[in-house]
């Protein structure tokens, strides 16, 4: 091979390597960023005023949304507009307040204000992202106590990064019905406590809103309990169906509870009355196989109810 041909081969090889790096590198980034499908988006004024069309499409994209109501004493200026669209199109929603409290008095005040501004929400989340202090546990317990006293028994949720949640006392975490953990990683976190909602990315490409949003999914073993529950959901007669899509949730009606399986292995036992979000189900040999966001749950059809 002459000198010119050797140079040409080297240049061609270099360009081929660059192409493969760019192509496969980009593919891997996209794949890891979209590894999980979101069940919920959290939305604030930074996403703007939603339109009717966006709201209708949003309902097809996720199970529910979590709207920001306030930042301390500051009211989110887009909340009233956006929450009306949630009600208009029957979109399930919870709310959160970005907490600014430094003591129990301020914590209770913020909890009361959050409920006052969003009495129709399905649940209420305490978004705690401040520096952890000596009295943070006490103040966060006060927030929970106040909200439980006024919201009529609706679930309360504690949100934070894994590093922040790790610092809370176990009794503080137990004071909340659900834990909402933020950790932007392609690997599911495995902390020492149970969490029920995982904010796994801040850049999920929403088709309905045409922008990148915080994506939230349910981790393995996550318990969303009544976060998605509404009394007007239609209960299906399982004797009339063997397979159906676009489901809402499965409720455990066996008083002894039911085991939940993934690939034939028991992951935990769901308690009587527990709610599990599902996408679809099929029945085989009197057993319900319900597809959740990350796992397939199986149970005897007499042990569960399914709602559309």
Automatic annotation (TrEMBL):
Q: Gene3D superfamilies, alphabetically? A: Glycosidases (3.20.20.80)
Fetch the InterPro entries from UniProt: GH, Glyco_hydro_25
Q: Which Pfam families match?
A: Glyco_hydro_25
| Family label | Belongs to the glycosyl hydrolase 25 family.
| PANTHER family hit by this protein | LYSOZYME (PTHR34135)
Designated name of the protein:
Lysozyme
């Amino acid at each position: 091979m002459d000198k010119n041909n050797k140079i040409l081969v080297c240049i061609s090889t270099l360009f081929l390597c660059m192409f493969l790096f760019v192509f496969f590198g980009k593919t891997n980034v996209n794949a890891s960023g979209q590894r999980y499908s979101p069940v919920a988006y959290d939305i604030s004024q930074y996403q703007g005023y939603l339109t009717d069309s966006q709201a209708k499409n949003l309902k097809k994209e996720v199970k529910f949304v979590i709207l920001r109501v306030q930042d301390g004493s500051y009211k989110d200026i887009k909340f009233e507009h956006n929450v009306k669209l949630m009600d208009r199109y029957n979109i399930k929603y919870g709310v959160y307040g970005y907490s600014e409290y430094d003591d129990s008095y301020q914590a209770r005040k913020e909890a009361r204000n959050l409920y006052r501004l969003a009495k129709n929400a399905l649940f209420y989340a305490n978004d705690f992202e401040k520096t952890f202090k000596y009295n943070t546990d006490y103040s966060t317990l006060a927030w929970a106590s106040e909200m439980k006293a006024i919201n009529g028994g609706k679930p309360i949720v504690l949100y934070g990064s894994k590093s922040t949640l790790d610092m809370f006392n176990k009794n503080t975490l137990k004071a909340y019905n659900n834990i909402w953990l933020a950790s932007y990683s392609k690997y599911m976190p495995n902390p020492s406590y149970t969490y029920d909602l995982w904010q796994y990315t801040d850049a999920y490409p929403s088709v309905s809103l045409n922008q990148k949003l915080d994506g939230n999914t349910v981790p393995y073993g996550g318990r969303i309990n009544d976060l998605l529950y509404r009394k007007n959901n239609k209960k299906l007669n399982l004797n009339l169906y063997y397979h159906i899509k676009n489901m809402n949730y499965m409720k455990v009606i066996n008083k002894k509870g039911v085991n939940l399986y993934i690939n034939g292995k028991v992951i935990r036992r769901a308690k009587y009355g527990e709610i599990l979000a599902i996408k679809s189900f099929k029945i085989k040999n009197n057993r319900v196989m319900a597809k959740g966001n990350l796992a397939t749950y199986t149970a005897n059809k007499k042990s569960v109810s399914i709602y559309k």
